[in-house]
Known about the structure:
This protein is mostly beta strands. The chain has one helix at residues 58-66, and strands at 15-18, 21-29, 32-40, 43-46. It has one domain (1-49). The chain is elongated and about 70 Å long.
Amino acid sequence: MAVPGDQEVTIGQIVTPVGLVAFPWEQYIGGEKRWGVAFRAEKLAIAAAARPVPVPSAESSASADVA
């Protein structure tokens, strides 16, 4: 994905593209057709870290079933 300028991200970080646009393209080289989609974004925003979902313990779920 292409973005203008330097971005404040490192390899492996999860990001959210802002202003994402897709451009289909095609070209012929040596009589063979190639095609694809190129992506461009205005900027990359660092995605918020996901919070782990609490998993109920066996004791709390057993006591909930008794009620």
